[in-house]
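Hello,

Following up on my earlier ticket. Below are the two sequence lines again, exactly as submitted.
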Amino acid sequence: MQMDGRVALVTGGSRGLGAALGHALAREGARVVLVARGAPELAKVVDAIRAEGGQAHGFVADVGVKEDIHRIAGAAAALAGPIDLLVHNASTLGPTPLRLLLDTECEDLAGVLDVNLMGPFRLTRAIVGGMVLRGRGLVLQVTSDASVNGYPTWGAYGVSKAALDHLGRVWAAELEGTGVRVLTVDPGEMDTAMHAAAVPEADRAALADPAAVARQIVEIVRAAEDLPSGARIEAARWTSPRARPALAGAGARP
Amino acid sequence: MDLAACPAGARRRGGAPVKTAAWPREETEAERMLVVDPDRDAIADFIVRDLPSRLRAGDLLVVNDAATLPGSLQGEATDGVPVEVRLLGPAEDGVWTAALLGEGNWRWRTEDRPAPPRLGPGSVLAFPGPANPIPDGSPLHATVVGVSEVSPRLVRLVFDREGDALWAAVYRGGRPVQYSYVRAPLALWHVQTAYASRPWAAEPPSAGRPLTWRILLEARRRGVGLAAVTHAAGLSSTGEPALDAALPLPERFDIPAETVEAVARTRATGGRVVAVGTTVVRALEGAAESGEGRLAAGEGRTSLRIGPAFRPRVVDGLLTGVHQPGESHFELLQAFAPEPLLRRALAHAEAAGYLAHEFGDSCLILPRSV
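Thanks for your patience. The regenerated structure is below:
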């Protein structure tokens, strides 16, 4: 999907990968609406994108709160127009330091599912109907390798991301033939506040720069029509099908 | 009026006989759909899930993709007198048209509410509810910049902020317009269609409310096309006779080029255009009217009043609610089916226990063959 003149809605847009995606998509010419809980941080990112000449809006909301979902969908469309690209980037680890499932409160697991699973489900549901009507749109879910590996202490987060991955597959199957696509992207380990909260002892030099990962995700968005809807993509290992003609179409739909 | 005095089935407009749906139902596909066939001079009972089977391959279903605004803002005049503002979207160059209601809340019928204070140009309204946290958290204010000749309750407003800050305040502090006959306050999700996209509607474009994606995709599988317009569905009632008599007010619409093409294709191949809701009829016929018969893409405004003498140029049939004599909607239906048939349909709906109003049952007026 070419983003020039299109509308992108990115949750978790005030820092880390979300903020980087806001910048990267605005540079592509998209009108970007960023959603986050923290007003001051969000305003800084919006101002920075505008200072670069990009078109950006901010809306303060919590994707884990049911009442906020139609507010996000409505305000975003009012500010920028009907949504072409919906990026579910916001997520929570739950309480940190991360803990064993045996030490996880039920309420904490539910809280993680509210943000990482119910939020994306509700927001997709509020926005994707309009995409189907227009016959185009892309929903991009940000996941983690914790969704496929059973890492100790990553239980609540990993379960929520595994469910999100599968949500993406079912959305894709149900939306087959409508022109609306769903992709799930694992950005890999990045140097973000979230990573620092999860793995405080990590060597930051070994972590990816969110801005570089955001550029890679923009390439994935550009190539979305050539990718099978429902695919789960590891950003670090992905190369554009257009950059490797021998393999072009290998993963594409017949 | 308290809640107990507003039971399910309360009569709303002029003592009409059809019962009222007092709350959104969960299984909308199972809601009833009265099919009115002008060709056969016949009526028949169906449910909403049957809609695809009542259409033909090659027909085009046109929906209104307007999302419903949280356009009811509780404010106060400078002397502290409460005023409810109901926004009529979308704003033009930052100027909003709005209807003002006086003291009271959603449990009161609009016609029972006291008149709002008369506000002239320059009057300021404050909205002390949840305010926008960007940039400084100050309460939203609006200034009256014009008053309608139709009624002093219809004004033009300018807010003290715009863009991100205005929409944050509206979506934080506003609620969808409420109805006294509904059992409890309606949330924003109660008043959206399955395909709501652009927040233009003051009140829900309710004909599309029972349509699920299963129904819409089933219609598409059967060869029925699906297209959209955006129409800023207006207020159903303000409580003031002069203003209510002037409803519907001129309303904005937008017709995408894809829809113009879909209508042309449908026409060329002998299909029929079926509007989901009177707002779609007004948008398409209003556009054709201003194009002197030719449907053109783009935004416009229509004050078209459709009645028995109106000859539709674009729309052949429509899905709508259960409408009763005395409503402007009932007048509009007479452009598609003769009044005696519509009256028979209504008598049947009443006897068979159909429900009316925003969350009520449906009525499909089939296209005439000539």
